[in-house]
Amino acid sequence: MEINAYQTRAELLLRSYMLSDSFIVYSSVIGGIFACKMVYDLSHIFTSIYFKGYAGLSKPQQVEWNNRSISTVHAIFITAMSLYLAFWSDLFFDDQLSGLVTIRSSTLSTGVLGVSLGYFLSDLAMIFWYYPSLGGLEYVVHHLLSMLAVTYAILTGEGQLYVYMVLVSEATTPGINLRWYLDAAGLKKSKAYLLNGFMMVFAWLVARILLFIYLFYHVYLHYDQVKQMHSFGILLISVVPSVIGVMNLLWFWKIVKGLMKTLAKRQ
Predict the structure, then answer these.
(1) Residue 225, CB half-sphere, CA atoms under 13 Å: how many?
(2) Which of 8, 62, 68, 216 could anchor a disulfide with 177, C-beta 3.0 to 4.6 Å?
(3) Could you tell me which residue ranges the TLC domain spans (predicted)?
(4) pLDDT by residue for the chain (267 residues), tens digit each?
């Protein structure tokens, strides 16, 4: 009876999102897309004015420079909102009086996911348009999985907590982009480049490895609630973090090897 009651509630929740909250969903996604366009244009304008080396970059490098500006702004925004919603607000507090943690959501949490979905759509479109200069197959897989999980969480309200835990991993993006910027600016041998390398390793370890371990532990502790989700939602919680987690380990090894190589050259 409890499972049937939950399924009925989830179906009613889905109708609610599709009807009463459709404006929030569509406007946030469209707003995210327009925000990406605005950041891209502003990056081109201000970088052309304040960084003399920008004009000397090739056209593909200029495109990537502005594209990384978009991902940096999105990373700062979604990391701050994910930390707030997942760990600081009372939305997902482990309080039985608040109902199942797997189906909790709010207008704010849904709107933020919509903005992030708008970013992933924009970035994936640019990746396909300039393929493979802005990223190879691994970036396509990463974005598609992220979009699938975010879209499901938006439309059903299920599993938003776990989506936000995964999105905290975007905290590593500014460091990755700064590394590329320093290289493009000819500062690969600078102290800033080396310091950024250490910060990347630390941030990656915390946000993309330790946090993922905590996510799986949280799913284990709340499995009685997780198993009451729709089958597709359970599949997403099982597959998406696992695949991205493996990719994170592979990328982490590459980052560590790159840092060790940089240190070896300085000795």
Answers:
(1) 19
(2) 68
(3) 60-264
(4) 455 555 555 555 555 544 446 888 999 999 999 999 999 999 999 999 999 999 999 999 999 999 999 999 999 999 999 999 999 999 998 875 578 999 999 999 999 999 999 999 999 999 999 999 999 999 999 999 999 999 999 999 999 999 999 999 999 999 999 999 999 999 998 999 999 999 999 999 999 999 999 999 999 999 999 999 999 999 999 999 999 999 999 999 999 998 898 888 877
In the chain, the amino acid numbered 20 is S
Supply angle C-alpha 124, 129, 130, rounded to 5: 100
Instruction: Fill in the amino acid letter for 19.
Output: L
User: Residues 6 or more apart from 162 whose CB is under 8 A from it?
Assistant: 215, 218, 219, 237, 241
Instruction: Identify the sign of the CA torsion 235, 238, 241, 242.
Output: negative
Per the CB < 8 A criterion, the answer to whether 165 and 219 are in contact is: no
CA distances from 119 to 5, 147, 188, 241 (A): 35, 10, 29, 19
Q: Alpha-carbon distance 77 to 155, whole Å?
A: 21
Residues 6 or more apart from 17 whose CB is under 8 A from it?
Answer: 25, 110, 154, 155, 156, 157
Q: Give the domain extent around 155.
A: 1-265
Q: What DSSP state is assigned to residue 54?
A: G
Q: What is the pTM of this model?
A: 0.89
Q: What is the DSSP letter of 134?
A: T
Q: Which residues contact 129 (CB under 8 A, 6 or more apart)?
A: none
- With tokens 């992220």, the residue in question is 146
Residue 62 is encoded by which pair of tokens?
A: 């200029």
In angstroms, the CA 195 to CA 85 distance is 30
